[in-house]
Give the backbone structure.
Amino acid sequence: MNKLLTTMFALAVACVTVSAQAQKVTGSVENGAKKTAMCVGCHGIIGYQASFPEIHKVPMIAGQSATYISSALAAYKNGDRKHPTMRAIADSLTEQDMADLAAYYAQLGMKDQAALPATPKTPNETVQALITRDKDNSCTKCHGANFSTPNDGTVPKLAGQHADYLTVALKSYKVDGHGVVGRSNAVMGGQAKKFSNAEIKQLASYIGGLPGDVKTVPESRFHRAD
């Protein structure tokens, strides 16, 4: 009897696993293009600045990986990332919406994108020491030698991103137990807490100055491109 129950349980688990895999959401670029109304007001304006939790440029998301965009939106929705505006927007999105938007922004502006150098310009000694402070888990281990070739889809491309945004984002991983500020990520939390805010700003300045894929692409139906 126990053997039969064990077999039935194993079959049930297998069926659930197969069902979950079969239901994996695939994003549509075409559908994503129709769902950007809540995005372009911030992410579609070159140089647009947010004021929470401090004044900084909103991140460039065109050219970012689809997997990362989906995972970031999901993190805002489930509360792992605390940001009132992004939480409200993410709450209104279905899993399919997230996948569609991610697919759209991942390819936006990438048609004529030049190949990035495999290795970036050498940082000064101070910044190099910060990058390799943890030899077993240096910044480039996850984000790539050029900070634009992540080792996993859920890891963002950082090269060329706004330095002030990177500074705010990295500092948010150091925040624990705050109601509306902070990001929950065991790996990034452990890494960010090793640096002072001044050191984070130095890292962000270097990484933000590297050539990268991410960009802001104004949409003509809402904003002029010039």
Observations:
- The chain has two domains: 26-113, 116-210.
- Confidence is low (pLDDT under 50) at residues 4-22.
- The first helix runs from residue 2 to 22.
